[in-house]
Amino acid sequence: MMFCLWTDAMGSTCLLHLLRGVVLALLSVCLVQGEDSYKYYTWTVTYGTLSPLGSPQQVILINGQFPGPQLDLVTNDNVVLNLVNKLDEPFLLTWNGIKQRKNSWQDGVLGTNCPVSPNSNYTYKFQAKDQIGTFTYFPSTSLHKAAGGFGGLNVYHRSVIPVPYPYPDGDFTLLIGDWYKTNHKALRETLDSGKSLAFPDGLLINGQAHTTVNGDQGKTYMFRISNVGMSTSINFRIQGHTLKLVEIEGSHIVQNVYDTLDVHVGQSATVLVTLNQPPKDYYIVASTRFSRKIFTATAVLHYSNSNSPASGPLPSPPIHQYHWSVKQARTYRWNLTANAARPNPQGSYHYGKITPTKTIVLSNSASLINGKLRYTVNRVSYVNPDTPLKLADYFNIPGIYSVGSLQSLPSDNTPLSVATSVVPTSLHDFIEVVFQNNENTMQSWHLDGYDFWVVGYGFGQWTPAKRRTYNLVDALTRHTAQVYPMGWTSILVSLDNQGMWNLRSAMWERQYLGQQLYLRVWTSERSLHNEYDIPNNVLLCGKAVGHNNDP
């Protein structure tokens, strides 16, 4: 506030100061509002023929690109994206890690949206509300993800919000994932017949087996690393260089330095790399983890003043397996004093002092149901109905989903079943979710609409006594958590985002064959403070056809 001692001699001077203060205040408001901009896109989805692993195959392109266009946003940007489907099948994109605050209408999964029919379009409208970080998008329908249609989604900070590291001299997005040479329709037929998929045929970096990244000696660059694969964890490293980890899926973390990083399916991590080595080219390496067959993909980090190609042996992956990976994961800690997308420090929310209102233990398994392979959660295998759950909720259409089919604790006495599983919760609940993995395979779980605190990892069976091992001070928040074989992972979630939210395996075979469910985060109070109205352009399908979609 400005105070003036008013005199005739000073009156004009004081008035000038007051006017200047008003103008500066208005300019500050305009600056902040101006950064909440609208960005408009038209994306056309088509098939194309490329040879990612050396032999021609059909892939899914967006605007002719594979991977799809990179979506670069600033915190609170509003996205208006017209998706035109030129495929021969219905299609949806989901925005992996974007919370869709109050807006599960735009989440882009079959529980919230009708797919876009061939030769038609749908316009997504969403905001990157209070988020920063490295994310991705990909197709959620069928096995389209196995054919492409994925891309990077980066949310940069607003100019008025600092980041806890020097601004890098540039950044690079690396989309790394396993890849099949087999057409996605043939892969789908395999799963529909009740069989598991074979191991993938290779590993790609940005849709290629080989690519090059260019930088200047002495400068520091940001590398945004995402595992966009179908089923396989990867390890990432750069020959002769260290990786300073600064952000994971929207969380600024304590900045430790690593030689290699494990990145599991559906996860993203952001590192700073300083080009401080002699001028030459160096290998960027990604390799599969925890698999009998090891695939390796390489790229080249090219110094602009280099006169020598990359040479020498590739940097080695970690010798040790699961216990090494758990140990690394436990070093990821929230930076309590850093801002995220908002001015207040991340650590101002004391999650560890809140008593959960509910505990849900989810146990995954592979089962035979009616003679076919299905994946289950607490012995229930999810099936997608013709009507999205969100529309069934809004229009009060009965019989679409079941809130009693999946129990909150697993039991071997529960009969195997197939159902459209929904777990009821209340808006502002604070819940504990334990992922129990009694299989001898890695698992990766993702929750739409939220990030969550990953408070504990362990091996064996989870019991309430394991809470004594939880990190209740500086666990990082993220949207996708790995679960190690014959082990468990615990998360805490603050359910402050009303909607119908998909909790799924990030391993797409398992998701496709039933390892998923939905959280219904609900309050009886209908208010725009809690959730936006149904979009005017909402697509209707199944039993929602014919209903009036006016808000």
Overall description:
The structure is a single chain. This protein has helices at residues 11-35, 184-192, 322-329, 389-395, 508-512, and strands at residues 38-50, 57-62, 71-74, 78-85, 93-96, 120-127, 133-139, 151-156, 171-179, 202-205, 212-215, 220-227, 234-238, 243-248, 251-252, 257-258, 260-263, 268-274, 281-288, 296-303, 358-369, 372-377, 380-382, 417-419, 422-426, 430-437, 443-447, 452-459, 477-478, 480-483, 487-494, 499-505, 516-522. With 551 residues, it is mainly β. It has a domain at 351-544: Cupredoxins -  blue copper proteins (Immunoglobulin-like, Sandwich). The longest helix has 25 residues, at 11-35. Residues 1-33 have low confidence and may be disordered.
Q: Which helices and strands, and how do they pair?
A:
Blueprint: H1 11-35, E1 38-50, E2 57-62, E3 71-74, E4 78-85, E5 93-96, E6 120-127, E7 133-139, E8 151-156, E9 171-179, H2 184-192, E10 202-205, E11 212-215, E12 220-227, E13 234-238, E14 243-248, E15 251-252, E16 257-258, E17 260-263, E18 268-274, E19 281-288, E20 296-303, H3 322-329, E21 358-369, E22 372-377, E23 380-382, H4 389-395, E24 417-419, E25 422-426, E26 430-437, E27 443-447, E28 452-459, E29 477-478, E30 480-483, E31 487-494, E32 499-505, H5 508-512, E33 516-522
Parallel strand pairs: 1-4, 3-8, 9-12, 11-20, 21-26, 23-24, 25-33
Antiparallel strand pairs: 1-2, 4-6, 5-7, 7-8, 9-10, 12-18, 13-17, 13-19, 14-15, 14-16, 14-18, 19-20, 21-22, 26-31, 27-30, 27-32, 28-29, 28-31, 32-33
